[in-house]
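Record 1 of the preview.
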Amino acid sequence: MEGTRSEREGRVDALLLEPLAGLKRGKDKDGRRLGAEAHEKMVARLRSWLGYLDDDQLSGLLNQIVVMSVSGEWPTEFHIRQVAMRMAPPPPEVSPYPRSMMVSALGRRAVAEGWAVEMYHEVLHHGPPPFQDGGWKEKLLRKEAAENEETAIRVRERVAAGQASDRDIRWLAARERDLAAVLEMQAEKRQQHG
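->
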């Protein structure tokens, strides 16, 4: 995903949404015609979400949407996303799943208990984990977190002594960045729900 969010959305507008402006509002998943406001919200979600596609993929998606448009109507958002994901799976930062897991009760518990970074990596790279309260996956992530925390302590000591390698510093920075991202997701969620 290259460029700023605004630049990515501008590409989606220019290469996909503007050429489709002549299509009539489509239908929702239940077959009901979308109202103007619902259609605009769908277009806004697509504008934001599809920015991960490159120019060629956006052009290909445009062609697919034209083929899928029945009677000059927009296909459903679900179908558009489905085609886009077949072209190129979205990177983890685009998918809502990692965020939804990290702001869930389980994600909050993982932060409180010190295994949030490991849970975040699991949901980013492997999708929905087979989580059961206290189950094998949670135990594995807790063990990994304990080992990583021991490593982090040693790296911090080496940093303080001026003996840390560049690799150590990058590893620690990435770990701290990932924890900060999780904490930011949770703070945003709290602000949304007061």
